[in-house]
Amino acid sequence: MKQTIFLLVFVVILAVRGVTISDFMSRNPTYDNRATPETNVISTLIFRSSIHCASYCTRNDECKSTMYNMNTHSCQLLSVHMDELSVTGPQSYIGWIYYERKFDGMMSTGAITTVDVETTVVSTETTQTAFGKRFKN
């Protein structure tokens, strides 16, 4: 029981501080504390956690990534995946953590793209019920 509680606390800490924030967003520390032009910022909002910030991004089709400041709780929704061309230098203050949105199991990580592959097994056997009797096809 003690080990289960420790593991749960450890997972929550990782989610909040950011390794993988959800199935839809992952952290890319390459662009932590980096600034991007205002034209790439969809909006800046205040959320109590990076998880809430990421959740808001996944509900916006235009949002491709987020910058979340752990100190001020500011959340920037970005219309780009950060790369060398979209970075204008350091942020004006520290504490910004960068997360990228995954699309269809893929996540852009600059020049390298990783793909999650899922295997689905489909059964061709069906069972029909008619008037209380079972028939097997």
From TrEMBL:
Source organism, top-level taxon: Eukaryota
Record-annotated Apple domain positions: 33-101
Keyword Signal: yes
Keywords from the named record: Signal
A Pfam family hit: PAN_1
Signal peptide (UniProt feature, chain positions): 1-22
InterPro entries: Pan_app (IPR003609)
Claim: Signal is one of the keywords in the record: yes
Full protein name: Apple domain-containing protein
UniProt organism field: Magallana gigas
